[in-house]
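Reproducibility note. Readers wishing to regenerate the assembly model reported in the main text can use the exact inputs given here. Chain order matters: entities are listed in the order in which they were concatenated for prediction.
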Amino acid sequence: MTDRTFLAIVLAAGEGTRMRSRLPKVLHEVGGRPMVAHAIAAARAAGATRVAAVVGPNADAVATVATKAGADEIFVQADRLGTAHAVLQARAAIAAGVDDVIVLYGDTPLVTPETIGEVRAKLAAGAAVVVLGFETETPTGYGRLLTEGDRLVAIREEKDATDAERRVRLCNSGIMGLSGAAALSLLEGIGNANAKGEYYLTDAVEIATARGLSAVAVTGAEEEFLGVNDRRQLATCEAVFQARRRAAALAAGVTLVAPDTVFFSADTELAADVVVEPNVVFGPGVKVASGARIRAFSHLEGATIGEGATIGPFARLRPGAEPGPNVHVGNFVEIKNGKVAEGAKVNHLTYIGDATIGPKANIGAGTITCNYDGFGKYLTEIGANAFVGSNSSLVAPVKIGDGAYVGSGSVVTKDVPADSLAVARGRQTMIEGWAKAFRARMTKAREKK
Ligand code: UD1
Ligand code: CA
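Running the prediction on these inputs yields the following structure tokens for the assembly.
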């Protein structure tokens, strides 16, 4: 949209005591992705040229996740002295020189790149401070935006507000844009003479207006700025996230038979003309190609599904599951780290782990690849057009050649050459008349008692 440089500073130093968790608050997940990673992803999608994350002391786990999510620099805030103090920990990144600085919160995961783009547009138009606000029926706890016409005059924290100011319903989301040229001097002008004795980022507004710089508010929908302090709010965020993803999938040409029963992850990719039946869960890392059908009650994670494949009902695909084009994976089938080539069928009650299955192979009901001996994991390779009879155990490492047959109930421990038959089970013996004689003997014994 612009060639202005943009530094995003994501605040993630909060303790999150109300979560009652051993996990730092910003690592709790929405759509299977840590909250802080959502904020970083939104900043990146909005065109951030640099992303800095501010973490608390002893927050190595947060730093690791933030870096993996795309943060370029991590700054540690040793003492929690307030939001302005937190932003100033990234002083070096601001001082390096940048056009736009935008402060995001690691516990506010639903902000969209479009909204961040609106803040940037106001900065580009000359504002020194841009605050994202929202109207709400329940303003308690939020800072209030005090306006005069279009001008933003001040932000008043709840604890410092007069009764009249508390009645204001326009609230501070916490997200703030600062012009890079003015940012450091505004931040350095902030003191801590307030009810909490903290350095409030929100004071940047009054300082800017006092200096004759312009401060403006941009408003958005309340749900976009939901901040998470406790588990209930985490669940609310999850619900909003899921609703958005369902709407986006439908708009992109995916059929969801019962949208409210389908759960997405942040990185789920469904092509147009995928059909998803009711009660399906997409864990992280799933891609589904066009024309595939995910049938009811399936659970997928780390799986890549080919065009026209049918998965489920009641299938479980785990990381590394790759059913190719037109593959059928049926009920009560689990696949982990298994490539299933075009047109193959694995239809009933089967475990495929660490395996490759050739095109058009048929895997009978109850087949198990025995991939683990308590120490290592081993590969099972099944060739094109192979036919594995029901209730077979394939003890890896083992290969079933192209076009080979495995007799039902076999325990296969040796490689099977192409186009041959392997039968590995006890031979069937028949004793004629045995049952009749047995019944006669037992009946007589019972009569004697
Ligand atoms: C802040 C805003 C308030 C706004 C609200 C929106 C200020 C002074 N107030 O209040 O106007 O309506 O957010 O949710 O900015 N943080 C640090 N280090 C600190 C303090 C905070 O990293 O020293 C982080 C927290 O982890 C959190 C964010 O900054 O992600 C907000 O801090 P919090 O203490 O929750 O601010 P609020 O009182 O909610
Ligand atoms: Ca808060």
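We highlight two features of this model. Residues 227, 229 surround calcium ion (ligand 2) (CB under 6 Å). The domain at 6-225 is CATH 3.90.550.10 (Spore Coat Polysaccharide Biosynthesis Protein SpsA; Chain A).
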